[in-house]
Q: What sequence folds into this?
């Protein structure tokens, strides 16, 4: 495989778009009905934001993992060795993660504590307790309902939105080690890296089936919305892990087969749009059914057929959104502009710093008596502008 593939502008554009939509997602949670454990909860809510969260949640993080995988192979080949690649990723991801998880992350749970405690602690006192709990190495499974009923969980050390960075770093390290191991035990052979439309369809179907079956198995034992903390090193939703790992691997495979450089992805835009629309409405119905069962009796088991359908629909919806967005941006958003380049270059820092900014604005707007849709729009704009401004400043210092 040659590393001479030219930079794909539409992938950079899509990546920063997904990051900006993550900001929109986090702003919307404050005005939704289904996440009472959020840091700042507005008294006014709308079902619109619940639906928006379900839609965005189905493709944002899977899409980001795919693009991380797509660029991983070329990055590793440029670094020549697995060791150099891992060191570069530790510098790029590990150091900002380490600094941010101690300096930025405590801001969000502090606002949770501040808006709910009868006698709030000072931020300094809260921060010391948060940092001290980093030494509580244990394997913890946390369900969202536990966060709502046990506020102490929010006082303990956690990655919060930086779970993505730590899990991605783990994926990069694992990929580099496997690549190095393969290189040591395999003999060089000539490969045909040309992809065909038919083979892309087959790969998408196989990947979707493997991910769906893995999700179903995990979901049989672990609740869909539960999170696991592994000794304060990794934080993720076990049911989502096959999707994230599968899309990361799919990105690596897509790069190795030149999926996005030889020709357009299969299927028409209309077909993929209809697929996303149909699967989204099916997912709405499934989630409504699951929540109805839980609300009637929290101890009542969810029927296996519902678990299996939920895992399968969510998997193929994520794949459908991915192909639709890749196809759209490849056709209509593949020209570089100065603003696109700046946003793409700043997207990583925007992801890291945006959530404390969002939560602070959500708190400041709590007492503002205006439509929640106006609040939502203002906070989205302010959060994106401020996150971008700080990110641009950090990049200028770094350069």
A:
């Amino acid at each position: 495989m040659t590393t001479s593939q030219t930079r794909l502008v539409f992938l950079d554009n899509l990546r920063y778009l997904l990051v900006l939509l993550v900001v929109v997602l986090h702003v919307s949670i404050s005005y939704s009905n289904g996440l009472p454990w959020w840091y700042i909860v507005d008294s006014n809510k709308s079902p619109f934001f619940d639906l928006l969260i379900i839609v965005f949640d189905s493709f944002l993080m899977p899409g980001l993992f795919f693009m991380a995988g797509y660029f991983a192979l070329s990055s590793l080949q440029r670094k020549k060795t697995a060791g150099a690649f891992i060191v570069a990723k530790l510098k790029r991801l590990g150091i900002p993660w380490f600094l941010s998880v101690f300096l930025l992350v405590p801001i969000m749970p502090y606002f949770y504590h501040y808006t709910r405690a009868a006698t709030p602690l000072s931020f300094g006192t809260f921060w010391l307790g948060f940092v001290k709990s980093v030494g509580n190495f244990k394997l913890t499974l946390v369900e969202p309902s536990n966060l709502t009923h046990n506020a102490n969980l929010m006082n303990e050390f956690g990655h919060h939105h930086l779970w993505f960075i730590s899990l991605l770093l783990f994926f990069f390290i694992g990929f580099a080690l496997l690549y190095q191991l393969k290189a040591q035990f395999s003999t060089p052979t000539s490969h045909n890296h040309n992809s065909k439309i038919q083979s892309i369809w087959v790969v998408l179907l196989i990947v979707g089936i493997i991910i769906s079956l893995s999700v179903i198995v995990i979901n049989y034992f672990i609740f869909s919305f539960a999170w696991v903390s592994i000794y304060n090193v990794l934080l993720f939703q076990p049911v989502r892990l096959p999707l994230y790992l599968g899309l990361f691997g799919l990105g690596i495979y897509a790069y190795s087969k030149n999926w996005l450089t030889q020709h357009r992805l299969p299927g028409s835009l209309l077909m993929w749009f209809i697929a996303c629309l149909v699967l989204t409405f099916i997912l709405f119905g499934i989630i409504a059914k699951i929540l109805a069962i839980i609300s009637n009796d929290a101890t009542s088991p969810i029927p296996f057929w519902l678990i299996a359908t939920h895992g399968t629909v969510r998997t193929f919806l994520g794949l459908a959104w991915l192909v639709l967005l890749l196809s759209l941006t490849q056709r209509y958003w593949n020209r570089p502009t100065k603003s696109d380049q700046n946003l793409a270059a700043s997207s990583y820092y925007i992801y890291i710093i945006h959530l404390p900014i969002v939560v602070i604005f959500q708190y400041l707007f709590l007492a503002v008596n205006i439509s929640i849709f106006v609040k939502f729009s203002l906070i989205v704009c302010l959060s994106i502008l401020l996150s971008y401004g700080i990110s641009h400043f950090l990049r200028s210092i770094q350069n």
Observations:
- DSSP finds 16 helices and three strands in the chain.
- The radius of gyration is 21 Å.
- The mean pLDDT is 91.
- The first strand starts at residue 139 and ends at 142.
